[in-house]
Amino acid sequence: MAKRVFNWLLVSFGSFWLLATHTKAFSAIPKPPTTLIDNNNKNNNIMSLATPQPPENQEQRTNNAILRVHGPDANGIVAAFSQLLYGHGCGIVDSEQHTDHTANLFFQRIHFDYTKMHTDRISLTSGIKEVCERFQMKSELNWGDKRKKVCVMISKYDHCLWELLLRHRAGELDCEIALIISNHPDLQNIADSFNIPFHVFKITKDNKQEVEAQELALLKEQEIDLVVLARYMQIITDDFCVAFPVINIHHSFLPAFIGGKPYHRAHERGVKLIGATAHYATADLDEGPIIEQDITRISHRDQVDDLIRKGRLLEKSVLVTAVKAHIEDRIIVYNNKCVIFDG
């Protein structure tokens, strides 16, 4: 009898020990994060939790600069700039070059690290100027210590705006979208959801010049570096094009179907391809230097609405690609054309 009691106590103690051990082990397993949903918030969306956010510490910039030069082709240009940068303690991270043999022009983009530069910016800038004068080159130097400030101008179509804002939020566009300007209030809710200032300038035939002057004053006050026309359905003046670099998205494969309603005219013409074109805006309507283009096939079965639907997919993709190339200093414009480096 005593032996049975002893065995029973031994088994009970063993079971208790196993239970306590496993309970402690399970409690050590990390629990999945709890999703808190505010029932009073109409914008709750589980998918939004997975939306990529811009990298932290965006204001911290690396000591990487971009130098772009172009001018008459000649021997020794690459060596001259390489020796100059080396002499100032800079290291070349990447270099791309191109020669237009027809125009006898040379183009180069140099990405260099100036962390160990033992001189100063004024000295290096002066050296670049001397080399450019020797070879009759033009140059643009971006020290890379601040993001370009971008203004997006829109009307009522929202597909290009959404694409720009979402790509920016995902960290694909290394810039600051400082403000949005529109001639209609319809899309303010989109700007508000991204906490971007939204300005409405109502334009008529009678006040166009006055209103555009107000827009230009705002852009200069905000120190804007680039204006993006994301289906902005107004023709901007020559003064606007001169004041800032302006990228426009045109809903056709330029130079075909310049102007309004290109999808309707493409359907009437019976074309088998439609496209979208991002270009720098100039005084000549839809004839500025082309940055990016893309196309898609259509058939006799496609109606105007089908062309519009397919075209919008092209428009937003082409526009983002062009904006990205500009803010990364990968473009050199010459003779109403663009050299686009890979970067």
From TrEMBL:
Instruction: Tell me the first and last residues of the signal peptide.
Output: 1-25
Q: Which GO terms describe its biological process?
A: 'de novo' IMP biosynthetic process; one-carbon metabolic process
Q: Does the keyword Signal apply?
A: yes
Keywords of the record, alphabetical order, are: Hydrolase, One-carbon metabolism, Signal
A UniProt-annotated Pfam family: ACT_6
Gene3D superfamilies registered for this protein in UniProt: 3.30.70.260, Formyl transferase, N-terminal domain (3.40.50.170)
Q: Does the keyword Protein transport apply?
A: no
Tell me the GO molecular function terms. Answer: formyltetrahydrofolate deformylase activity
Q: Where is the Formyl transferase N-terminal domain?
A: 148-323
- NCBIfam families named in the record: PRK06027.1, PurU
Which protein is depicted? Formyl transferase N-terminal domain-containing protein
